[in-house]
């Protein structure tokens, strides 16, 4: 892990003056190199609030963005980071609060407005046209620096690239560049459009370790030249290696900020501990009925569901060598930041994706070669997080959706003929048992609220001869009541003796329900722990890429 010295970090170092002259005159007439840490921040977000139905994504968040600093935004999935930068980049409008740029109140109604205010955004997946060259992409959407001609653009680009230490061929087709190089092109484009603030939203998430390191070094060079960088990451080592200031968000609120002095004083180890405490520390607000995890039924000694050395091919996140077992009555939590292979893993277990190698064993029998339907018949159930896409057919009535995985089977179909009264009886029973609020069983399921669709999915997957249930992000996007109802169902399923795999990006949920917890990162299990005292910190550390 590399930390820059204080001069580097504030951009006050001697090297900046001459080195930057060319670039600064080209791009940055307003940022003073003498004192980037002047009294006024470049951007002040003042008590910004943003609400979505059922959730406060940003709750009076105040953040100052200084030139010459990489400002890291940290927080669990759903903490409110993307909403906050979305407000800055003109994608979202705040409900309350003010944005000040250079001390003056600013309105950012559109992405174009953000650009014209000097705020550029670089996304995880580069937003360039792959069939065009680098220079053509840079010229797209308006000529940077008022230069309509290609030669002029190429000249400006060469200067910016040279100054930032980037070597990209302007004539190369973007589709042939690595993702890291594409992001560099986006940064060059933003600089050439006179951006003063660069937002990098999980820009390192898809990069190789080398690509991430190069991007980190480039961020360092940018801030040394007086730019401000807002960097969102889930990796603590990156936050501490490249960040000069760290703001931690939790459940939409700002829960802490470590400035350059704090980071210097604490050093990497104590700063890591402090950030983990802020991100995952004591529960801030217990929801109704939330309580510490209590085991209610004794577990069987032998796992009923076992995964041995399972690997799943995937171009983005391959799953590698995953092994664990779940006993009847046990809830095994699989925590992790979204997009770390959980979906690929769950789909492979459910039979929706081929397994590259390894075994899936249910009650002693290897089932990895079985179709999804046959896995279901022997008791394996999968509650997908894609409720409307993969889990249900929106235009079909509830009654049919409740039987979607049993179409053609007795007693609901007989020699290909629908048995309407059996289907209706079954639907009425489940709608009543699972409290699905609907005008009727013939209502298209797509017309129901998210919470009621989830109830119908649970009804379908938890009834019959279920023995193992895999839940993928089961409460994602639900309101508080439906979250409670879903968690109660999960616990009740385990209490009935089912083996439960709970895949969730919500650490509170995993801690509330699980007996044991594993963390998946980049397709691998990076650690497993009992859900006992200290589990929160251990799991939080593993989720942030810090060894527990
Ligand atoms: N367009 C939207 N409509 C409804 N809810 C939304 C919308 N955008 C975000 N949310 C909700 O707002 C909350 C904050 O989301 P946000 O994406 O800002 O978090 P985040 O910290 O960026 O998470 P992640 O690390 O997963 O990207 C979440 O509960 C999310 O579900």
TrEMBL record:
The keyword Iron-sulfur does not apply. SUPFAM superfamilies: P-loop containing nucleoside triphosphate hydrolases. Residues 1-11 have a biased composition (Basic and acidic residues). Gene3D superfamilies: P-loop containing nucleotide triphosphate hydrolases (3.40.50.300). Residues 43-276, 294-547 form the ABC transporter domain. GO terms for molecular function: ATP binding; ATP hydrolysis activity. Keywords: ATP-binding, Hydrolase, Nucleotide-binding. InterPro entries: AAA+_ATPase, ABC_carbohydrate_import_ATPase, ABC_transporter-like_ATP-bd, ABC_transporter-like_CS, P-loop_NTPase. It is an enzyme of class 3 (hydrolase). Residues 1-21 are annotated as: Disordered. Its EC number is 3.6.3.17. Belongs to the ABC transporter superfamily. This is Ribose import ATP-binding protein RbsA. It comes from Hartmannibacter diazotrophicus.
């Amino acid at each position: 892990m590399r930390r820059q010295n204080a001069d580097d970090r504030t951009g006050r170092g001697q090297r900046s003056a001459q080195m930057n002259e060319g670039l600064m005159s080209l791009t940055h007439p307003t940022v003073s190199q003498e004192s980037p840490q002047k009294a006024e921040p470049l951007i002040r977000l003042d008590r910004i609030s943003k609400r979505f139905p059922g959730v406060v994504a940003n709750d009076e968040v105040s953040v100052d963005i200084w030139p010459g600093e990489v400002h890291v935004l940290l927080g669990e999935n759903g903490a409110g980071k993307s909403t906050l930068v979305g407000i800055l980049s003109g994608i979202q409008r705040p409900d309350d609060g003010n944005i000040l740029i250079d001390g003056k109140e600013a309105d950012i109604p559109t992405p174009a407005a953000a650009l014209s205010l000097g705020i550029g955004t670089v996304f995880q997946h580069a937003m360039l046209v792959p069939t065009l060259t680098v220079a053509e992409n840079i010229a797209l959407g308006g000529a940077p620096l008022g230069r309509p001609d290609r030669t002029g653009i190429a000249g400006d680009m060469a200067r910016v690239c040279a100054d930032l230490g980037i070597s990209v061929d302007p004539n190369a087709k973007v589709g042939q560049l690595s993702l890291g190089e594409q992001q560099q092109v986006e940064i060059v484009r933003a600089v050439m459009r006179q951006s003063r603030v660069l937002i990098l939203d999980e820009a390192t998430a898809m990069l190789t370790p080398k690509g991430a390191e190069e991007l980190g070094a480039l961020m360092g060079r940018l801030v040394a030249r007086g730019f401000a960088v807002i960097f969102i990451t889930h990796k603590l080592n990156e936050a501490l290696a490249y960040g000069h200031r760290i703001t931690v968000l939790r459940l939409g609120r700002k829960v802490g900020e470590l400035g350059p002095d704090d980071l210097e004083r604490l050093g990497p180890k104590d700063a890591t501990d402090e950030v983990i405490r802020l991100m995952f520390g004591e529960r801030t607000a217990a929801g109704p009925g939330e309580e510490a995890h209590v085991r209610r039924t004794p577990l069987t000694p032998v796992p009923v569901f076992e995964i041995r050395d399972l690997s799943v091919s995937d171009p983005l996140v391959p799953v590698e060598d995953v092994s664990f077992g779940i006993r009847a009555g046990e809830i095994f939590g699989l925590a992790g930041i979204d997009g770390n292979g959980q979906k690929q893993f769950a789909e492979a277990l459910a039979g929706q994706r081929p397994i590259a190698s390894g075994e899936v064993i249910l009650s002693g029998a290897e089932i990895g070669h079985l179709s999804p339907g046959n896995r279901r018949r022997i008791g394996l159930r999968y509650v997908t997080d894609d409720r409307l896409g993969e889990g249900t057919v929106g235009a079909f009535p509830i009654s049919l959706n409740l039987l979607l995985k049993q179409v053609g089977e007795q007693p609901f179909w007989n020699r290909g003929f629908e048995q309407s009264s059996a289907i209706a009886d079954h639907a009425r029973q489940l709608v009543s048992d699972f409290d699905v609020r609907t005008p009727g069983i013939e209502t298209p399921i797509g017309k129901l609220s998210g919470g009621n669709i989830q109830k119908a999915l649970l009804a379908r997957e938890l009834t019959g001869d279920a023995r193992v249930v895999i839940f993928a992000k089961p409460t994602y996007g639900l309101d508080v009541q439906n979250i409670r109802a879903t968690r109660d169902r999960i616990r009740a399923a385990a209490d009935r003796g089912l083996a439960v795999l709970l895949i969730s990006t919500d650490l509170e949920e995993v801690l509330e329900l699980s007996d044991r917890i594993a963390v998946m990162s980049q397709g691998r299990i990076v650690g497993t722990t009992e859900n006992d005292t200290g589990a929160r910190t251990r799991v939080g550390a593993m989720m942030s890429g810090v060894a527990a």
